[in-house]
Task: inverse folding
């Protein structure tokens, strides 16, 4: 199976502080990986390195089999950041217009949209359950609805890899489970490889295929069922403080506390 991401002996530091040390892991095609870890564990830095926003100081990153410094096909990667709390809810754009803006990376800034592009927008909105809101102003939506639109914006260019950084920020607690259900369906139906940074491992543990536990070092990387069998003291070592993996009432699940 092709590796979408392959990381070897990766190190990164800010001035005197090492935030990533000897990181090694792969993300196979079609997998759904959740990266978990405490605040300040290096998760955001790792995403920036994978997205090419930072350059590795030591080690290697390969994307789709290519060294990252030679990688040009960035349209294959969709990215959804934490919902910006500073997002201008008065921004005068409809949901469809926001999603269509995700095509500019692939088409160029001044290309005219054709019927086929309008169809792609419709399909992306349908994939996240937001078709009926297509003509609504983006500022009129709830935080969870806006985040679904941002995912549709990332999906519209048909990426092979979708990276999400804490996507449930601003999503009402009662809607978080439905949100992750949608991501699980995208992973299976579209065969999109998903990489997700989250604190909601209890809610999503029955959706993801793999978990990586990061706290400067990679303390665990493997299948979700293996992660759920970790002992409490192993998790405490990874997190730097006492944690408990509590089971939920679904088939698989737990939450780090």
Result:
């Amino acid at each position: 199976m092709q590796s979408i991401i392959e990381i070897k002996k990766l190190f990164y530091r800010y001035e005197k502080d090492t935030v990533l040390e000897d990181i090694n892991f792969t993300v196979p095609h079609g997998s759904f990986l959740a990266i978990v870890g405490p605040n300040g564990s290096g998760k955001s830095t790792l995403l920036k390195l994978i997205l090419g926003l930072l350059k590795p100081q030591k080690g290697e990153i390969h994307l789709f089999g290519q060294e990252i410094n030679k990688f040009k096909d960035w349209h294959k990667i969709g990215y959804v950041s934490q919902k910006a709390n500073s997002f201008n809810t008065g921004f005068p754009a409809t949901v469809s217009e926001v999603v269509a803006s995700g095509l500019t990376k692939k088409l160029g800034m001044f290309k005219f949209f054709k019927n086929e592009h309008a169809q792609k927008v419709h399909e992306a909105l349908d994939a996240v359950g937001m078709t009926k809101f297509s003509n609504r102003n983006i500022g009129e939506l709830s935080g969870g609805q806006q985040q679904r639109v941002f995912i549709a914006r990332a999906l519209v260019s048909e990426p092979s890899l979708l990276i999400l950084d804490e996507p449930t920020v601003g999503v009402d607690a009662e809607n978080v489970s439905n949100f992750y259900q949608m991501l699980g369906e995208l992973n299976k139906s579209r065969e999109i490889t998903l990489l997700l940074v989250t604190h909601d491992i209890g809610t999503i543990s029955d959706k993801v295929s793999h978990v990586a536990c990061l706290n400067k070092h990679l303390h665990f990387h493997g299948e979700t069922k293996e992660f759920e069998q970790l002992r409490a003291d192993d998790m405490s070592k990874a997190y730097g403080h006492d944690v408990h993996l509590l089971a939920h009432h679904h088939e698989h699940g737990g939450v780090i506390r």
